[in-house]
Write a structure and sequence with these properties.
single chain; mainly beta; four-stranded antiparallel sheet; 14 strands; 0% helix; rod-shaped
Protein backbone atom coordinates (compact mmCIF):
# COMPACT_ATOMS: atom_id res chain seq x y z
CA UNK A 1 0.00 0.00 0.00
CA UNK A 2 1.19 3.43 -0.96
CA UNK A 3 0.56 6.71 0.66
CA UNK A 4 1.08 10.12 -0.75
CA UNK A 5 1.64 13.11 1.38
CA UNK A 6 0.73 15.75 -1.09
CA UNK A 7 -1.91 15.93 -3.76
CA UNK A 8 0.60 16.75 -6.40
CA UNK A 9 2.26 13.40 -5.97
CA UNK A 10 -0.98 11.51 -6.27
CA UNK A 11 -0.50 10.80 -9.93
CA UNK A 12 2.96 9.46 -9.41
CA UNK A 13 1.88 7.22 -6.62
CA UNK A 14 1.51 4.31 -8.96
CA UNK A 15 5.24 4.29 -9.64
CA UNK A 16 7.22 1.80 -7.73
CA UNK A 17 9.18 3.14 -4.80
CA UNK A 18 12.88 2.32 -4.58
CA UNK A 19 14.23 2.06 -1.09
CA UNK A 20 17.82 2.93 -0.55
CA UNK A 21 19.68 1.80 2.53
CA UNK A 22 22.33 3.89 4.06
CA UNK A 23 24.77 2.40 6.50
CA UNK A 24 26.30 4.54 9.13
CA UNK A 25 29.72 3.28 10.15
CA UNK A 26 30.67 4.29 13.64
CA UNK A 27 34.30 4.47 14.60
CA UNK A 28 35.34 4.13 18.17
CA UNK A 29 37.13 7.15 19.59
CA UNK A 30 39.68 6.27 22.26
CA UNK A 31 39.94 8.43 25.30
CA UNK A 32 42.93 8.53 27.66
CA UNK A 33 43.26 9.57 31.25
CA UNK A 34 46.55 10.66 32.79
CA UNK A 35 47.98 10.34 36.26
CA UNK A 36 50.83 12.36 37.70
CA UNK A 37 53.28 10.01 39.38
CA UNK A 38 55.59 11.67 41.91
CA UNK A 39 58.87 10.13 43.07
CA UNK A 40 60.41 11.87 46.06
CA UNK A 41 64.20 11.51 46.23
CA UNK A 42 65.55 12.76 49.52
CA UNK A 43 69.13 14.02 49.76
CA UNK A 44 71.79 12.02 51.56
CA UNK A 45 75.15 13.22 52.79
CA UNK A 46 78.68 13.86 51.59
CA UNK A 47 81.17 11.59 53.37
CA UNK A 48 84.81 10.63 53.23
CA UNK A 49 86.29 7.53 54.84
CA UNK A 50 89.91 6.56 55.27
CA UNK A 51 92.02 4.08 57.21
CA UNK A 52 92.54 4.95 60.86
CA UNK A 53 96.15 3.68 60.85
CA UNK A 54 98.72 3.48 58.08
CA UNK A 55 102.40 2.53 58.14
CA UNK A 56 105.39 3.03 55.93
CA UNK A 57 108.29 0.64 55.52
CA UNK A 58 110.93 0.46 58.25
CA UNK A 59 114.50 1.55 57.51
CA UNK A 60 117.81 0.95 59.22
CA UNK A 61 119.86 4.09 59.77
CA UNK A 62 122.98 4.28 57.60
CA UNK A 63 124.06 7.88 58.13
CA UNK A 64 122.65 9.03 54.76
CA UNK A 65 119.22 10.17 53.66
CA UNK A 66 116.89 7.27 52.89
CA UNK A 67 113.33 6.79 51.70
CA UNK A 68 110.50 4.96 53.37
CA UNK A 69 107.40 4.20 51.30
CA UNK A 70 103.89 3.06 52.07
CA UNK A 71 100.21 3.60 51.49
CA UNK A 72 97.55 5.59 53.31
CA UNK A 73 95.00 2.91 52.43
CA UNK A 74 91.86 3.61 50.45
CA UNK A 75 90.17 6.99 50.75
CA UNK A 76 86.54 6.81 49.65
CA UNK A 77 84.22 9.73 48.92
CA UNK A 78 80.49 9.15 48.73
CA UNK A 79 78.30 11.99 47.51
CA UNK A 80 74.62 11.22 48.05
CA UNK A 81 73.48 14.84 48.35
CA UNK A 82 71.87 14.83 44.93
CA UNK A 83 72.88 18.42 44.22
CA UNK A 84 75.78 18.03 41.77
CA UNK A 85 77.63 20.71 43.75
CA UNK A 86 81.02 19.02 43.30
CA UNK A 87 83.60 18.50 46.04
CA UNK A 88 87.31 18.42 46.83
CA UNK A 89 89.21 16.02 49.10
CA UNK A 90 92.48 17.23 50.58
CA UNK A 91 94.84 16.07 53.27
CA UNK A 92 97.32 17.76 55.55
CA UNK A 93 99.98 16.02 57.60
CA UNK A 94 101.69 17.12 60.80
CA UNK A 95 105.41 16.82 61.43
CA UNK A 96 106.55 13.30 62.38
CA UNK A 97 107.61 13.08 66.01
CA UNK A 98 109.30 10.53 68.20
CA UNK A 99 111.10 9.91 71.39
CA UNK A 100 111.84 11.68 74.66
CA UNK A 101 113.08 14.32 74.28
CA UNK A 102 110.95 14.86 71.18
CA UNK A 103 112.66 14.44 67.83
CA UNK A 104 110.95 15.43 64.57
CA UNK A 105 111.08 14.80 60.87
CA UNK A 106 109.22 17.66 59.23
CA UNK A 107 106.23 17.08 56.99
CA UNK A 108 108.17 18.76 54.18
CA UNK A 109 109.99 15.43 53.78
CA UNK A 110 106.76 13.74 52.63
CA UNK A 111 105.63 13.25 49.03
CA UNK A 112 102.07 12.06 48.35
CA UNK A 113 100.90 10.43 45.10
CA UNK A 114 97.07 10.14 45.13
CA UNK A 115 97.10 7.25 42.66
CA UNK A 116 94.47 6.29 40.14
CA UNK A 117 90.84 7.17 40.59
CA UNK A 118 88.51 4.20 40.93
CA UNK A 119 84.77 4.59 40.41
CA UNK A 120 82.81 2.54 42.93
CA UNK A 121 79.51 3.88 41.57
CA UNK A 122 78.74 6.93 39.45
CA UNK A 123 80.33 8.44 36.37
CA UNK A 124 83.98 9.22 35.74
CA UNK A 125 83.36 12.46 33.82
CA UNK A 126 84.31 15.50 35.89
CA UNK A 127 86.00 13.52 38.69
CA UNK A 128 89.80 13.26 38.91
CA UNK A 129 92.61 12.26 41.22
CA UNK A 130 95.08 14.89 42.37
CA UNK A 131 98.70 15.22 41.29
CA UNK A 132 101.81 13.99 43.09
CA UNK A 133 102.70 16.64 45.65
CA UNK A 134 105.62 17.25 48.03
CA UNK A 135 104.29 18.81 51.22
CA UNK A 136 105.60 22.33 51.86
CA UNK A 137 104.31 22.73 55.45
CA UNK A 138 102.04 21.06 57.99
CA UNK A 139 99.18 23.24 56.70
CA UNK A 140 99.83 22.65 52.97
CA UNK A 141 96.78 20.80 51.60
CA UNK A 142 97.47 17.91 49.23
CA UNK A 143 94.60 17.46 46.76
CA UNK A 144 93.63 13.78 46.62
CA UNK A 145 90.60 14.01 44.30
CA UNK A 146 88.04 16.50 43.04
CA UNK A 147 84.66 16.57 41.34
CA UNK A 148 83.58 19.63 39.36
CA UNK A 149 80.00 20.92 39.42
CA UNK A 150 77.41 18.52 37.99
CA UNK A 151 79.63 15.50 38.64
CA UNK A 152 80.87 13.36 41.51
CA UNK A 153 77.50 11.89 42.45
CA UNK A 154 78.16 8.37 43.67
CA UNK A 155 81.23 6.84 45.29
CA UNK A 156 84.91 7.20 44.32
CA UNK A 157 88.21 5.86 45.68
CA UNK A 158 91.92 6.63 45.58
CA UNK A 159 94.68 4.82 47.43
CA UNK A 160 97.50 7.34 47.94
CA UNK A 161 101.09 6.19 48.21
CA UNK A 162 103.52 8.12 50.35
CA UNK A 163 107.26 8.48 50.41
CA UNK A 164 109.07 9.90 53.45
CA UNK A 165 112.61 11.15 53.04
CA UNK A 166 114.44 10.29 56.26
CA UNK A 167 117.43 12.55 56.99
CA UNK A 168 120.78 10.90 57.59
CA UNK A 169 120.95 12.45 61.09
CA UNK A 170 117.52 11.11 62.24
CA UNK A 171 117.21 9.52 65.68
CA UNK A 172 116.05 5.92 65.89
CA UNK A 173 112.47 5.29 67.09
CA UNK A 174 108.87 5.06 65.95
CA UNK A 175 107.76 8.36 64.44
CA UNK A 176 104.11 9.29 64.17
CA UNK A 177 102.27 12.01 62.31
CA UNK A 178 98.63 12.92 62.05
CA UNK A 179 97.00 12.91 58.62
CA UNK A 180 93.82 14.95 58.39
CA UNK A 181 91.58 14.21 55.40
CA UNK A 182 89.02 16.92 54.63
CA UNK A 183 86.19 17.10 52.14
CA UNK A 184 84.53 20.33 51.07
Amino acid sequence: MMYCLHKRYLAKAALPIVLTSYFLILTSVSKAATTTLNAVINPGSLTVTNSSVASISAVTLEGVSQSSAGSLGPIIVTDNRGTGAGWSVTMTVSDFSCCTPIRTITSTNLTVAPGSLSVVSGKTAGVSAGETHTVSSATDPVTLMTAIADSGLGSYRVTPTINLSIPGDAYAGTYTATVTVTII
